TrEMBL record:
GO terms for cellular component: periplasmic space. GO terms for molecular function: amidase activity; hydrolase activity, acting on glycosyl bonds. InterPro entries: Flagellar_prot_FlgJ_N (IPR019301), FlgJ (IPR013377), Glycosyl_Hydrolase_73 (IPR051056), MGlyc_endo_b_GlcNAc-like_dom (IPR002901). It holds the Pfam family Glucosaminidase. GO terms for biological process: bacterial-type flagellum assembly; bacterial-type flagellum-dependent cell motility; cell wall organization. Residues 211-366 form the Mannosyl-glycoprotein endo-beta-N-acetylglucosamidase-like domain. The keyword Signal does not apply. This is Peptidoglycan hydrolase FlgJ. It comes from the Bacteria. Coiled coil: none annotated. PANTHER family: PEPTIDOGLYCAN HYDROLASE FLGJ. It comes from Stenotrophomonas chelatiphaga. The gene is flgJ.
Length: 397
């Protein structure tokens, strides 16, 4: 893929909003192209163009990248424009290209008080840290184009998104089909006084990229899909994220036996929480309990959520608000102690519940998924670093 070697913004042009916007759009476009290429390299197979049809695949990916920056785009161009324009008003006049520090500062999304690291970036780990700093508290709406791009590349999306690629703002067209999330109902959303305890944008994107590579219907893909939420919940509870993932895997059969409604909709109930005292939506299904060591089938109602994030948030509330789980939380990052505390508190009637959680948590499936997420995060870091360097012409010669 051909990358524009540099974007120059002379001092006289930095007061020209049109020129600043043009440079910001170009830079966002370069990032989108590299991001799509990175996603394609990390994706699991090639569902649209199998075999050797690389030319058509590259043309298709180019179309996706162009669509990502139409309309509101990724949200980067507006941020870059503000940073570039603000630098002209606040700083001394420059007689050359934008320097490395300004270039990296232009990418800061929600960490304006943090010092922008100098570029070029020497390694992927440093790039990942920079991306995580940039995206701390970023609204999930910023991730919509990137997450939908992953769905397109992995072949998981319907034809509606393919049809919208040629529109002036495909993501705006898509959003008409589903209402925007109500931020006020997001228990982990960032506010003016709280940076938010939910997963960062970069962590979420790395997890999504790992799912695309591993396959959404594999045990590893299930782990990757909920890992970012598990980390957030584990931090709130003071426990090991692997314990929460293991419990969700046990309750749902690695996502293959999730509780569903009569019409087939998933309840997103990852922890088998029953609907006792629950005023929200619920799903009634057949289940089993152990009475005096004997397994018995029964029908029960379970809580239903709008998303996995809501399921994790409710799980956190349940454990923190109910005194009987205090002993489990006191076990901290001791997975076996935490699981034993849940069982002793009556969370489940299966006499082997704690041992099963501990076994899954220490097994290879979670390790493989976490490693894939780490690789995806490193790839995102390299993509960001190489794109910024090439686009701004500040890479070492």
């Amino acid at each position: 893929m051909r990358i524009q070697p540099s974007f120059e913004l002379n001092p006289s042009q930095r007061n020209d909003p049109a020129q600043v916007d043009k440079v910001a759009r170009q830079l966002e476009g370069q990032f989108a192209q590299m991001l799509v290429k990175s996603m394609r390299d990390a994706s699991f197979g090639d569902s649209l163009f199998p075999g050797e049809n690389t030319m058509f695949r590259e043309m298709y990916d180019q179309k996706i990248a162009e669509s990502m920056t139409r309309g509101k785009g990724l949200g980067l161009s507006a941020v870059i424009s503000r940073q570039l324009s603000g630098a002209a008003a606040e700083g001394p006049a420059l007689d050359g290209r934008i320097n490395a520090t300004e270039a990296s500062r232009a990418y800061q999304l929600n960490a304006p008080a943090a010092e922008a690291p100098a570029m070029p970036l020497e390694d992927a780990d440093q790039a990942v840290r920079m991306l995580q700093q940039m995206a701390a508290g970023t609204s999930p709406r910023l991730l919509q184009p990137m997450e939908q791009t992953l769905d397109l590349i992995a072949g998981r999306d319907s034809s509606s998104m393919h049809q919208a690629l040629g529109s002036s703002d495909p993501y705006a067209a898509q959003s008409l089909a589903a209402p925007a999330p109500v931020v006020a109902e997001d228990q982990w959303a960032a506010t003016s006084t709280n940076r938010g305890t939910g997963p960062s944008a970069i962590d979420t994107l790395a997890s999504s990229s790992a799912v695309a590579r591993l396959g959404s219907h594999t045990p590893e893909g299930f782990v990757a899909g909920i890992w970012a939420h598990a980390q957030t919940a584990a931090k709130e509870l003071g426990v090991d994220a692997r314990a929460l993932v293991a419990q969700a895997a046990l309750e749902t059969g690695w996502g293959k036996r999730q509780i569903t409604h009569g019409d087939g909709r998933t309840s997103h109930n990852l922890f088998g929480i029953k609907a006792t005292g629950w005023s929200g939506d619920r799903a009634t299904v057949g289940t089993h309990e152990y009475v005096n060591g004997a397994r018995r089938n029964e029908t029960a109602s379970f809580r239903s959520y709008s998303s996995p994030a809501e399921s994790f948030a409710d799980y956190v509330r349940l454990l923190k608000s109910n005194p009987r789980y205090q002993k489990a939380l006191e076990a901290g990052t001791d997975v076996r102690g935490f699981a034993r505390g849940l069982q002793q508190a009556g969370y489940a009637t299966d006499p082997s519940y704690a041992n099963k959680i501990a076994s899954i948590a220490g097994g290879p499936t979670i390790e493989r998924a976490v490693a894939a997420i780490g690789d995806a995060g490193a790839q995102l870091g390299r993509t960001f670093a190489s794109t910024a360097q090439a686009a701004l012409g500040i890479a070492r010669r």
